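Feature request, filed as a ticket because there's no other form

It would be nice if the structure record came with a short human-readable summary line next to the tokens. Right now we just get the raw output. Example of a typical job, pasted below so the devs can see what we mean:
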Amino acid sequence: MRIRGQMKSIYFWGGPHPINESYISSPPDGIRIKSNLSSPNFFKVGEYTQRHTVLKTIATSGLKTLGLPRMAWIKTDCDAIHTNGGVIPLSNHPYFVTIEHASSFFHLDDDLFESDRWKKTLISFLQKKRCKKILPYSEATRSALEYGLGKYYEKIREKVEVLYPAIDAKIHFKKYPRIKNRESFHILFVSRHFFDDGGRELVEACKILSLKYDISVDIITNPPPHHQQLFEEYKKKINSDVVKIQTSSIAREILFRDYYSQSDLFVLPSYIHFFGYVMLEAMLYQLPVITSDVYAMPEIIKDGLNGFVVSSPISCFSKENLKPSSKIKSYKNEIIKRDLTPVTNTLVMKIEELISNPKMCEKMGDESFHMVTKGKFSTEYRNHQLKSIYELIE
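Raw output as currently delivered:
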């Protein structure tokens, strides 16, 4: 039991995604953090392994069979628990739960929103007193949750509050400052999902731009199995003098040191992303960003301010920002067969605008940097909000 006046303690539970890093490295003042990510027996931030995938698959299968939302046994002596990924802690502690998408609670199976039984089961956990806050990554996630739960949302409305992810600038930028040594205008794309995140359209745009400008491009990717063959065939058409493809795993430190810090522009015209955390990493290195109008992307990139937002003719999301299986099925067909030349043409126009106007490029990069060091994606901004949230602990 915490003694009056004693520092509050929070047990942060999450997976190895870098989005969880700043909760541990830079908590609010007056808050002591413990975490499964600090344990020598667990995964480190950024460490995605086959073991992690297997354990997550087994847990998901078991809970879905039982008709239960995401949950985990969490043992701690802290005052409260904060989980990420829609995981409900099986514990008597008060807790806060962060969600990337509305269906995070439902094992990312949006079809379960069609079931009253699943929604009632979820609400039965979330409306309990020990659930203090439900924290969506974005307004897109919050609105999708409201739509998905329908009338049941009213039972938890007062507990829902958007909490944007943050990046810990003092760790990475101080360690690997921006020092650009390239003479060419350099463009960076980082995503495992080459086709789903618009990598093909970027390559096609750069093919056109390279006829007029001195540009270079790094594509850091490793497409999922269902796109591997298509990717290998497409790679043969790429001009390696302009576009360099990197498919092997790269440590985050090297990504910061050798890629972000050496680039002029980050491009991620995604058709699938919930929240592009790599964009925050790019913004830390004073890069303008070109992205799409899908899901929460326009909440991160303000068109004309810290980059450009291009209109996407396809998306894996419904207009309500859910991902029912019927929508995913049609999307998988579209990403391969649909003519996405309009995206390519828009990328050409927007990239050329930045190449031709270095002052605009610099100004947008400065705005990106401000957003992650002082603005709504900074730990300072996030912690001000998070501390008031943690004050709900009795």
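Something like this underneath would help us a lot:
The CA atoms of residues 239 and 344 lie 16 Å apart.
The longest strand covers residues 8-13.
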